[in-house]
Structure formats: structure tokens, C-alpha cells
Amino acid sequence: MERLAQAIAVLSKKEAFECLQGGVPAAAIATYEQQLGLTFPDNYRWFLSTFGYVSWFGHSILGYSPHDPDYDTLVATKRSRATKLPKGFLPLPRNGNIVMRYGGGGDYVLFSKGGELEGQVVLYTDEYGGRPTDSWSSFEAFVEHFSRF
User: Fold this and answer.
1) Which of 5, 25, 87, 131 shows the smallest number of beta carbons within 10 Å?
2) DSSP states of 9-60
3) In this structure, are residues 108 and 99 in contact, taking their beta carbons and an 8 Å threshold?
4) How many angstroms separate the CA atoms of 78 and 92, rounded?
5) 27 phi, psi to nearest 5 deg
6) Is the model's pTM score more than 0.70?
7) Which residues lie closer than 8 Å to 86 by C-beta, 6 or more apart?
């Protein structure tokens, strides 16, 4: 988790950085997993238990936020799953949860443990009918990518 901690330390120096002070209890994380029907990768579970979510000027990595649904992966993922899609659009993969919204329309999806693409983050954009357009090999690599801006 060292790489992830270092990347978030870089993000913490960015304008308007915030996170959920104290993180999230294990029971709340388990409830999210149960409601989404998946198992979060260990690095994302650590992220949730330590930070809950993180936000900085113009970006947010979704997680657990009891006070602001805009930062909550459960809310974003359930909304996306329930949205009626235009003809030809691919639905959100059932073995993933949204970890960031894409400003141009779409979502960054983290794939759960035990399935295809386990632990990877994939960007699905509206411009391409909900099809994948970019990917990162792990949640750490994804967070590191955004810590460079």
C-alpha cells in the first residue's frame, strides 16, 4: 500500500484537497460490497478504511461519503446500473464499481476481486457508447496517474 499512500500524499498537497477524516469501518465496507455484489480489491479496501474518499480541485476518487453522494461509489454505481441506456450503449460491468466520473461523460471503473480484469481500473466513455477507452493495471497506478497533474 506504500505506492498508494505516496500517491495520495501528493494529492493531499493539491488545491481544495479533502477526504473523510478517520476513514471507514470494516463493517461499512462489507455492507457496500454486499450491496454491490462484489469484493473490493485489498488496495481499495485500504483506501476506504484510511481515507473514505479523496477530492481535490476538479477531481474526486469515489469511496464512502455519508454526507455527500457525489463522493460515494455505492450511490454512483447503483445510479449507473439503474440508468436506461441509449440503444447501442454498453452497461456498466457488474463486477466493477465507479471510482471516478469522467468529465466528458463516462466512468472510471475498478474491477472486483475474483473476476476478469481483477484490480484494474478501466475508463468507459459515453463518446464511444460506454466502451473502454483507457485502462490502468491497478488502483495504485490509477491514483498515481492523477497525482501527476
Assistant:
1) 87
2) HHHTTSTT-EE-TT---HHHHHHHHHHHTS---HHHHHHHHHHS-EEETTEE
3) yes
4) 10
5) -65, -40
6) yes
7) none
Is residue 22 packed enough to be buried (19+ CB in 10 Å), middle (13-18) or exposed (0-12)?
exposed
The answer to whether the CB of 121 falls within 8 A of the CB of 115 is no
Q: pLDDT tens for residues 101-138?
A: 999 999 999 999 998 899 999 999 999 999 999 999 99
Q: In a 3-state reduction of DSSP, which class is residue 67?
A: coil
Give pLDDT tens digits for 61-107. 999 999 999 999 999 999 999 999 999 999 999 999 999 999 999 99
Cα 61 to Cα 2, 25, 31, 88, distances in angstroms: 18, 18, 19, 28
Contacts of 103 (CB under 8 A, 6+ apart): none
CATH no. for residue 73? 3.40.1580.10
> What's the total number of domains in the chain?
1
